[in-house]
UniProtKB/TrEMBL annotation, chains A, B, C, D:
GO terms for molecular function: DNA-binding transcription factor activity; transcription cis-regulatory region binding. Residues 34-53 bind DNA. GO terms for biological process: negative regulation of DNA-templated transcription. Keywords: DNA-binding, Transcription, Transcription regulation. It comes from the Bacteria. It comes from Streptomonospora mangrovi. The keyword Ligase does not apply. Residues 11-71 form the HTH tetR-type domain. This is TetR/AcrR family transcriptional regulator. InterPro entries: DesT_TetR_C (IPR054129), Homeodomain-like_sf (IPR009057), HTH-type_TetR-like_transc_reg (IPR050109), HTH_TetR (IPR001647), Tet_transcr_reg_TetR-rel_C_sf (IPR036271).
Length: 216, 216, 216, 216
DNA sequence: TATGAATGAGTGTTCATTCAT
DNA sequence: CATGAATGAACACTCATTCAT
């Protein structure tokens, strides 16, 4: 269809292709997605994909890079727009959850796909992926969360907290998909509630504090 | 290689093949993994894989099913061996984290791979995967956690807590892999520490309680 | 099933296998039919097929040979049981049609399959097949048909008549299968009727006799 | 071989592939014929076969359809070119025999192969094949044969006559192949001769008319 | 004798990638 | 610039055939 293409500038075409690729990679996974499929979804012929992006592998990394940038920028923008600082952690989480829920395709490519594909992507993709994960979560968890106190316990602990946030956000958007009557906001409310209830129970002694290094 | 024909009974060979498949699927992902690769890793010829397991797809679901059973049993056994009840949640989490960290291949196949492959696995695999996730986490989180009080807040909240635990365990074992000087136990200690610190800060007002439904 | 077989004498087993093979070859064609399928249909294990018949190819030729013998014998027996000589041609055709219609599996293997499979069967199978074709039809058409006059016109013409009979019988049993309310006998009646009508029309001039060597 | 990339338009290549397929299917049978073999015979690489024809099965049906069209057209054209009407039946048969003898590959695919392959081709192929058989033979036998008298005896009888003609033509071209000194024309002469002789003998009482429904 | 276990070799099919226009 | 045409290489799957028990 649409034969004799419209002579758009290269940069635009490239974005169209990446847009399509993110959608297709997200739905089918890296290996199942065929370049034909992506080209068709982008409305260009297959050689264009190769002229612009070079190879399927480089196309995939291009997706990773662009979505990494977008993700960082999205959360950063949200945080910039000034919440009162004490609510930093909560609002940061809210933005993060919101982003993941609102950009499922991008997130799937960025996080799930980029982790589960074997060797060819070890370095290039790994570092790009880690960049978002680290940057976003250090923004949300460490930086924003406790502006007054700096690091919570140590660098590693901050990273752990970050990973927990990421894994939770990832797993919870699956839950969101399976419960269509919930929204990203209602989910965040539930999570916060759980935290409060947990703390209360903890205070009343319903949950015993573990002595670290106890079991096993 | 492996010389010629070892003539083992079917049941044994089947397990060998599934063992190999879990390893290979875990490393390469479902689509990248070739049946040849799996057969070689199992020390059998390709036709054996088909004679015993039927197809690549059915081999994959066989992996899911077996690892699902094993995972449930592993955590269940750990919980049965009687910790003092107040420590239920902590020890449950410890066992769960320990399992995930100690069985990375199985977990990758069970959780990451089974989620990210497209259509062919919707039903069969999905339900098997959900079964572990639900069973394990309801064991760890809901059942064991609060034996005196039953459900925490509601069914959905229990599920959310379960998903958080799963997503966190998943993400944290990535972190473990990247920090080889840590162990599953030291990781659990760190997490518990963070929880305690969090609660303390919360109590001292360092973290403001959000009014649920606030932001955005 | 039926594990631990019954220790039957070799000759019997061989016939069982050939019986099954004829059925399966007839239904699926030589190449589609798998030795597994045949072994199962015969109620023996696959190695038995090889021990007794050697190879798939030799099994096929064994089918051809046996069915060739049976076909010749069937028609010969029918003809021996003394019809009045003038009816020889008609009753010969009747027997032949009857045989083909009543032994579809055998006929399919003997005639259709044996002609349409490529190279490996050129000689062995071809000669066996030709043997039946020639023997049966010379019996029916030439020998029996005109005992008083010997050959009709010449050897080649007799062969032509034979081929016509064979081709017609083959094609007509297809027609029989598609018209289940007809029987082999009713079909023969129809054919004879047609012949009579043809001759009558010919006599009345409705059909012009061609001058041989005319057209083109 | 055939050097590299000849860059022909799709329609041309499609016909080349079908041409080659008819030859190969005719020689080897549907199952023995490999797509590789066909591709090589067509002078293209295997993927072209799949890009243009989709699958081996669809390639086979494409052969059937094209040869069906050609066969119908060939006989129709021959009949159109005006023989004196009384000779209709004979010239019709002559054309039909001539076509079959001159297009053995096509005929083998159309008639022999299409009948003897098992299930996958039941509908699509069956109807296409039946279309030629019916159309050609009703043209030759019924329509052309007796323009003055319409149907011979009844619909079923016309069909029977048609089947006889087809089966005879099929069987006789085998005979032609085995007797290379004969031609399609000389064969037709022989057949006509036989018919005449038959009628004469019949008239002189050498052949007794059967009472339909007699024997058995 | 009889068979479950095992495989080498091949087939249909797909896909990333490139050339010729 | 843009694309239809073309292919090398690989992959899932099957089958006739044999060996070890």
């Amino acid at each position: 269809m649409a034969s004799k293409q419209q002579r758009l500038p290269r940069a635009v075409r490239e974005q169209q292709v990446i847009d399509a690729a993110v959608r297709v990679f997200s739905r089918s996974g890296y290996h199942s997605a065929s370049v034909d499929e992506i080209a068709e979804a982008a409305g260009v012929s297959k050689p264009m994909v190769y002229i612009y992006l070079g190879s399927k592998e480089r196309l995939f990394t291009a997706c990773i890079h662009r979505e990494a940038d977008r993700a960082v920028e999205a959360v950063r923008a949200a945080l910039r727009s000034g919440e009162p600082p004490e609510l930093g952690l909560w609002s940061g989480l809210r933005e993060f959850f919101g982003y993941v829920a609102a950009n499922r395709d991008a997130w799937r490519v960025l996080y799930q796909q980029a982790r589960t594909q074997g060797e060819p992507f070890s370095q290039e993709v790994h570092t790009a992926r880690v960049r978002v994960v680290d940057e976003i979560t250090s923004m949300v968890v460490a930086g924003t969360a406790l502006p007054e106190g700096g690091r919570i316990v140590g660098e590693r602990d901050a990273e752990i907290l970050a990973r927990i946030a990421i894994g939770a956000a990832d797993a919870l958007t699956d839950w969101l998909l399976e419960n269509p009557d919930e929204t990203a906001d209602s989910l965040v409310d539930r999570v916060l509630n759980l935290a409060l209830v947990g703390v209360e129970r903890y205070q009343t002694g319903d949950i015993a504090a573990p002595a670290p290094g106890t079991a096993r």
